[in-house]
Design goal:
The protein is α+β, with helices and mostly antiparallel strands. The protein has helices spanning 32-43, 113-124, 152-158, 165-170, and strands at residues 2-13, 23-24, 58-65, 68-74, 77-81, 87-91, 95-111, 144-148, 175-183, 192-200, 207-221. Helix content is 15%, strand content 39%. Strands 1, 2, 3, 4, 7, 8, 9, 10 and 11 form a 9-stranded mixed beta sheet that branches. The protein has a two-stranded antiparallel ribbon with strand order 5-6.
């Protein structure tokens, strides 16, 4: 087994798992459906193609820079033709769309080495355009962060902090605690469920299964942290030879 690390950053991201009708929400972290969909695009897998080779991947996400929630109002109209030939415009319901602004995530996909190496190559030179949850959300900067001979838990714990330098400077401590969301092990205690396990992206029979996830936190070094010097007075230090 090996793990491919991905940097998911952009002005806007939107990772919906239960969007319906005029309300298009977003989770606080990338969903498995969204990340696997992005990987499938990179590999050139079309929506109607089977996803068997990607279904065994384990996903873990670290919230390096959670960003802030942004709500967008959208209005639309459609023409309506009367019997006498006149055309009027019918206003459609107001649409509420939610995004994460200025967020940065570390995503780790664990699987067979040949598969994750192929994902790493594909993300560097994708077959189709990549986006962060929605087509209106392109990534900012490179996504691929290389392949690791480690579990996704080890990658989430040891990979350097990906937040912007400005964000890192706001935290004066030498380390920072970051939230993680990962696929839960079988029968793992404290797991919760999300319906974002992709089964098919076919527009005519889109299907998602339930997925068990575990929320934890890890502590990573802050490159811009301040290491406070010790001010403890040692009266015997002047007697040293």
């Amino acid at each position: 087994m090996a793990t491919v690390a991905l940097r998911l950053a952009g002005p806007l991201q939107s990772w919906g798992s239960a969007s319906r009708f005029v309300r298009r929400g977003t989770e606080t972290a990338p969903t498995k459906s969204g990340v696997v969909g992005m990987v499938a695009s990179a590999l050139g897998i079309r929506r109607t193609d089977p996803l068997e080779e990607l279904l065994g991947l384990r996903l873990g996400v670290r919230l390096d820079q959670p960003g802030r929630l942004l709500r967008d109002f959208q209005t639309a109209q459609r023409p309506k033709k009367a019997r006498d030939g006149t055309v009027t415009w019918q206003r459609l319901p107001l649409s509420h769309r939610y995004y994460l602004s200025d967020a940065v995530f570390l995503a780790a996909l664990e699987g067979e080495r040949s598969l994750v190496e192929g994902i790493d190559r594909a993300v560097r030179s994708p077959a189709f355009p990549l986006y962060l949850g929605r087509r209106s959300c392109p990534p900012a900067g490179p996504i691929a962060l290389d392949v690791w001979d480690a579990t996704l838990e080890e990658v989430l714990t040891t990979h350097p902090w990906l937040a912007s330098s400005a964000q890192q400077r706001r935290h004066r401590d030498a380390t920072v605690r970051l939230e993680t969301v990962r696929d839960a092990a079988e029968h793992e205690a404290g797991a919760e469920t999300l319906r974002d396990e992709p089964v098919s992206f076919d527009p005519n029979r889109r299907r998602h299964a339930w997925r068990s996830v575990t929320r934890e936190s890890v502590e990573v070094p802050n490159p811009h942290g301040v290491h406070e010097p010790t001010n403890e007075h040692d009266p015997m230090s002047l007697l040293g030879g």
